[in-house]
Each structure stands twice: as C-alpha cells, then as structure tokens.
Design goal:
The complex is a heterodimer.
Chain A: H1 2-17, H2 19-31, H3 36-60, H4 63-69, H5 74-106, H6 117-167, H7 171-179, H8 183-204
Helix pairs in contact in A: 1-5, 2-3, 2-5, 3-5, 3-6, 5-6, 5-8, 6-7, 6-8
Chain B: E1 2-13, E2 18-28, E3 32-37, H1 43-50, E4 58-63, E5 66-67, H2 72-76, E6 79-82, H3 94-101, H4 110-120, H5 133-145, E7 151-155, H6 163-180, E8 183-188, H7 191-197, E9 200-205, E10 208-214, H8 215-220, E11 223-227, E12 240-246, E13 249-254, H9 257-264, E14 269-271, H10 275-287
Parallel strand pairs in B: 3-8, 3-9, 6-7, 7-8
Antiparallel strand pairs in B: 1-2, 1-4, 4-5, 9-10, 11-13, 11-14, 12-13
Helix pairs in contact in B: 4-5, 5-6
The chains are: A mainly alpha, B alpha/beta.
C-alpha cells in the first residue's frame, strides 16, 4: 500500500509539472459552469489532458526506465493510475456542481440549466466511460502508439456529446433522472472492469525502446 | 559468490533479427565487472532483462540470490540502476525528483544524498533538463547510491562525457566499492574505462559472450605481436586470433604467447594488450577478418 501511495504522489508531481497547461482549462471549466454544455466541454478537455498528457510527458522523458528501476510491482503502477483517475473524476464534476450551484444562486439565468447533483453524476459516469476505455490503451500501447486511438475516442466523445446536445439540450439532467444514483456504482463498475483489463496488459508489456 | 547468475538466457527480437544468447554468465560479488560490446551487441538488452523491463524467452536471471522476474521488486530494492536514459521528468527540479524517488527505499540515506550533491555541486532547485549531460549522470548516480544498494547496475555511465566528468564517475565507483562493498556491473564501449577500474570483464558480441573472466588474467594470457611479414608461416598463422598485414609487417593478437615466442623469438615485438586490443581482436576474428 505504501508503494501505491508513493506512486500516486509521483503522479501528483507529474501533474504539477504540467500545471500551467491544466490551470487554464480548469479555470475555464469552473467559470463556465453556468452553461452546462460549456462546462461539459471543458470537463472532457481537462479529463483528456489529465489522462493522456502525464503519460505522454512521461514517455517523452523515457519514464518507463524510471518506473522500471523502482522496487514496485506492475499492478501497483496500474492501481496508482486508476486511483488518480478516480480522484479526478470525483473532484472535477464536484467543482462544476459547486461552481454552477454558486453561480445559479448569485445570477439567475432562467434559460440555462440548473446545475444539479444529476449533472455531476452524468459527468462522473461519462468520464468513467472515457477513462475506462482510454487507460488500458495507454498502459498497453504507451502514449505514442496509442495517440491516434485515444484522439479518436476523444473526438467521438465530443461528437457524441454535441450530437446528443443538439437533440436534447437537457440530456445530462435526463440521464441523471433515468439513472439516478446508480450512475455512481455504474461508473465505478466500468472503472473496475477497465482496471481488470489493464492489469494483465501492463504486466505483459515490455519496454523495448 | 555471485551477485548475478544468468542461465540459458535467450531473447529474440523478430523485427531486427537480433538474438541474445547467454548460456551462462556470472558476475562475482564485491568487484567491478565491465560489460563491453559494440553498438547493438545486446548490452542494454541484458541490463533491461536484469531489471525486468524485458522478459526472456528462455532461461533465468538470479540477482543477489533472487529471481529477477518473479521477485523483481525485492531485487530492485537492493539495486542502484543508472541507465543510459534514466527517465527523469525533464521539467522537474532535482529536489522534486528526489522526493519522488526516495520514499520507495526504506534504506534511503538523506545525509548521504546531500553529501553526493555537495560533491557534485548539484543544486536541488535546478530543473533536470537544465543540467549538462555530465551533471545529469552525476545526479543519477546520487540517486542510485543513496539507498545503500548492494549492486550498482550502470548502462554506459561514461558515454558522452568529457574526460574530467568520466574520471569523477570512475572515482566514485571505486570509492563506493571500497567503502560499502558494493558490486558494480557496468556496460560500456569505452574500453579505457575498463582498463582503469574493472576487475572482471565480459565481452559481448552479436548477442553472445565471447570472453569472460578476470581482466588482468585475460590480458596476461594474450599478447599483441608485431613483426615482419616473413615471420607469418603456415605454422605460425593459426596461433593468432586475428592478423592485420601491411607493407611494413603484421600485427596480431595471440592467446598462446609462449608458443608464438618459441617460434618467432626476438624477431617479433610482444606487447601486453589493452582491453580494447582483446576486444577488437576477438570480435574481428568472429567476423572473419
């Protein structure tokens, strides 16, 4: 457990190294929370950056050598990555929810959505789906070989969101109403399944570069 | 007692057609062992197999009595590794990198780390990418030695360094061995480094071990012979590992100097070979030169 904690701390340090790029999007996400489409847009951009960029940055520095010399098991590396992703999936939607709730209290904009707990749930579930698909790809292939695949998934997520918003601009609320609180365990189940796929893939990976 | 024991090791790379084939390789404990080979010989591959970054197709690697694959974390806890590409985050400061690395080692010695930093004049506030190549290597060595490893594995530690920086690193290796009894295994293609500090050498060529043993014994058991061309006869030529002819005479490496001397006598000149002479001689013989 100590090793996983240290690996999570290491992921935190990596995020700090790219904080300048992240902060801008984080600020945009929080301040745009009064318009849910915008908040969702920046949420997914931020999620993509938080998921893909540290891995890419790591790989650019040949980080697999650094991880490879540490006295840790591969499963612990995967556990740390998923724990960090889970933290991101909890914190970011909560920030949107809190920010949107605050904005709504201060400035009443009737035509916009009321940011609700349901929107937070939808973003958590959507983000879990994104991470659930992307993370095993990154762990198995590495960021360079997986870049086109990850970009495709990212663009499809965006296009999908855009298309759904066009058809139903309150779709997040409707999904939350349909799924309710079950979106949390569903999202967690997606992540757990993704983790179960990622562990053997990363265990088999060899660092030939 | 051996700190590294390789048995029946094979690793194939289908794409490049390269195959590492080490039926047996042993690295003695408590000494400095140099692992020399030309570019593409398989040095880095061997080190990566030891660090469990690559998996062998066949065979086993035991380090400090433990299986390098099945007991990888326990093995790596006792190893200090300095790779040709260490993999530190380029934009992170040295202090941040140390804070990332140190918690993984219960034996981490902060005072020792500070001493090494002072010796190498490393400023913790500087970013890794802003250091020169030599300073980056020195930082890697700081990190590798600060948790009191039993084995130091180094992949071309002196490559791309100026002579001063190289000598500093070689001095550190010798001092650590004397002070802490650390076993050192380092790969290089700079043979002069082996001449200076190695106790044992292992010659790797095209994925296979050509020669292995005590450096001084290998050098004592071979001679570089120089003489006029007329000394080369059907009787004397087979005694040479390799030969180079010119209009002025020949130069050859022999593994049986007494026999050669009995045939050529004082007409030839006999020199003790350097590690480079041995390496070139045997690899050229393998290539059929």
């Amino acid at each position: 457990m100590e090793n996983v904690k240290n690996l999570v701390r290491m992921e935190g340090y990596k995020l700090l190294c790219i904080r300048k790029a992240l902060f801008g999007y984080l600020a945009l996400m929080v301040f745009s929370a009064f318009a849910i489409q915008s908040a969702g847009f920046f949420f997914f951009i931020l999620l993509y950056l938080l998921t893909y960029t540290p891995t890419a940055y790591d790989e650019q520095s040949k980080g697999e050598y650094h991880i490879g010399m540490l006295p840790v098991e591969r499963v612990q590396v995967v556990q740390a990555k998923y724990l960090v992703s889970l933290a991101e999936l909890v914190v970011l939607p909560l920030l949107i929810g809190l920010s949107g709730g605050l904005v709504n209290c201060l400035i009443e904009i009737p035509e916009n959505y009321q940011i609700s707990f349901g929107v937070v749930l939808s973003l958590f579930f959507g983000g879990a789906m994104f991470v659930g698909v992307v993370m095993p790809c990154l762990l198995w292939l590495g960021s360079i070989r997986a870049r086109y695949l990850v970009m495709t998934i990212y663009l499809l997520s965006f296009a999908g969101m855009g298309a759904i918003s066009y058809l139903d601009n309150q779709w997040m609320n409707h999904i939350a109403q349909a799924g309710g609180i079950w979106l949390i365990p569903s999202g967690l189940a997606v992540l757990l399944f993704s983790y179960a796929v990622a562990v053997p893939l990363y265990r088999r990976r060899q660092f030939t570069s | 007692m051996y700190v590294i024991e390789i048995s029946g090791l094979k690793k194939r790379f289908e794409k490049g057609g390269f195959c590492l084939d080490l039926p047996e390789m042993r690295v003695p404990e408590g000494y400095i062992t140099g692992f020399i080979g030309e570019n593409g010989a398989g040095k880095t591959t061997t080190l990566k197999l030891m660090m469990d970054m690559l998996y062998p197709d066949e065979g086993t690697i035991r380090i400090l009595g433990l299986d390098a694959h099945l007991q990888g974390p326990q093995v790596r806890a006792q190893i200090g590794y300095v790779g040709s590409t260490p993999g530190y985050l380029a934009h992170a400061t040295l202090e941040t990198l140390k804070r990332m690395h140190a918690p993984f080692y219960p034996n981490w010695d902060e005072a020792l780390y500070r001493r090494f930093c002072d010796r190498f004049s490393l400023d913790g506030k500087k970013k890794y990418k802003d250091l020169s190549t030599g300073k980056q290597k020195q930082f890697s060595i700081c990190i590798a030695l600060s948790h009191h490893p039993k084995l130091l594995l180094m992949d071309e530690p002196t490559a791309n360094l100026d002579p001063l920086a190289r000598q500093e690193i070689l001095d550190i290796l010798t001092e650590e061995l004397q002070r802490e009894g650390v076993s050192v295994f380092f790969s290089t293609h700079i043979t002069s480094d082996l001449d200076k500090i190695a106790d044992y050498v292992q010659f790797l060529h095209h994925g296979r071990l050509l020669i292995a043993g005590e450096k001084d014994r290998i050098c004592e058991g071979n001679r570089v012979v120089k003489g006029p061309l007329h000394l080369l006869t059907p009787e004397t030529e087979p005694l040479f590992v390799n030969l180079r002819r010119s209009e002025f005479g020949f130069t050859g490496l022999t593994g049986c100097p007494d026999e050669v001397f009995s045939l050529l006598g004082d007409e030839a000149v006999y020199e003790k070979p350097t590690v480079e002479d041995i390496f070139l001689g045997y690899t050229q013989a393998e290539r059929g030169h």
